[in-house]
Design a protein that fits this description.
Layout: E1 2-6, E2 20-24, E3 39-42, H1 47-56, E4 62-65, H2 71-75, E5 83-85, H3 92-107, H4 110-118, E6 146-150, H5 154-165, E7 169-174, E8 184-187, H6 191-195, E9 200-203, H7 217-222, E10 227-231, H8 240-249, E11 252-257, E12 277-279, H9 291-304
Parallel strand pairs: 1-2, 1-3, 3-4, 4-5, 6-7, 6-9, 7-8, 9-10, 10-11, 11-12
Length: 314
């Protein structure tokens, strides 16, 4: 068996008996001498390279994505008999860390602090001494804050305990209600009530037709005044024009976006210069953890006829 791993992946390579693990260039078409491979690992290849691989690699049995999102695997057009598996779970820790960092940066008003540093200004308003809320109405501590995590999957299961450990009250929102990982999770039809008491909204939604612009003008108006918004899911799930309007009106006190609807975010986007916005360039999930174990397990399942982890519906 031949397994192709792109050079964009810098983690440990899988160790599989009787398998030839070959590292190939992520940005170039699969070399002709390797189109006979049965397993293709996806990490960093552009869509045109994957589309070419789908057309030329006639012996493929498994495409193992290391990305949490399945979008590019589905778009490449692999044959129906090729198993597609995502990297769900590989990014839980890093994304949870990033979401917590962005949340704390907004709560502790670090964008304003950085501006004041550039101005050489010692601004006492940043302290919020003896106050429950900042000057703009936002919470100034996670202690007692109402945090809503919209998209309560494996990443949220890592993030929610961190938030709770800092004193926050955490509510999850998902397609179906019920307790998960020790946290209350409500269905999306309960959003109006939940958003009305939310101090911090953390978005971890995937990209699909049902989540497009899920956080729109209507939902933003339902938020508690001076709420904070963090998005580490997919940029298409937020109506950016509506968010910008909510920020400028003061209804939303601040936002932190690791993802945007168009990436890279165009230089002309007003989000860059909005003083209450933090932007990071889709870096929350760039470090898949223990990916070699997932590859090894799924190759073993492929050989033995077992269940493939993270198998995607076609």
């Amino acid at each position: 068996m031949k397994i192709l791993v792109p050079d964009a992946y810098r983690g440990a390579l899988p160790h599989i008996d009787d398998a030839d693990v070959v590292v190939i260039a992520a940005g170039e078409p699969v070399p002709e001498e390797h189109v006979d491979a049965e397993v293709l690992v996806v990490w960093g290849q552009p869509l045109d390279v994957l589309t070419d691989a789908a057309r030329r690699m006639r012996h493929l049995r498994l495409v193992q994505g290391l990305l949490a999102g399945p979008d590019i695997l589905r778009a490449a057009g692999f044959a129906p008999d090729v198993a597609l598996a995502s990297g769900v779970g590989l990014h839980d820790g890093p994304v949870a860390e990033h979401a917590l960092a962005l949340t704390l940066a907004l709560v502790r008003m670090l964008p304003l602090a950085m501006r004041r540093q550039r101005e050489h200004a010692w601004d006492a308003v940043l302290g919020g001494a003896m106050l429950e809320r900042a000057h703009d109405g936002r919470v100034i501590s996670l202690e007692g804050a109402q945090v809503t995590v919209w998209g309560f999957g494996s990443i949220a299961s890592r993030l929610a305990p961190l938030l709770r450990g800092m004193g926050a009250w955490v509510t999850g929102v998902a397609r179906s209600a019920g307790p998960r990982h020790g946290f209350d999770v409500v269905a999306e039809d309960s959003l109006p009530e939940v958003l009305g008491r939310t101090d911090v909204l953390i978005m971890i939604l995937p990209r699909d037709e049902s989540t497009h612009a899920a956080l729109n003008a209507k939902r933003l108006k339902q938020l508690k005044p001076s709420a904070l918004v963090v998005n580490v899911g997919r940029g298409t799930t937020v109506d950016e024009d509506a968010l910008l309007a909510a920020l400028r009106s003061g209804h939303v006190a601040g936002a932190a976006l690791d993802v945007t609807a168009v990436e890279p975010l165009p230089e002309s986007s007003p989000l860059w210069d909005e003083p209450s916005v933090i932007i990071t360039p889709h870096v929350a999930s760039g470090r898949p953890q223990r990916a070699e174990r997932l590859i090894e397990a799924n190759v073993a399942a492929l050989r033995e006829g077992g269940d493939i982890t993270n198998l995607m519906a076609r």
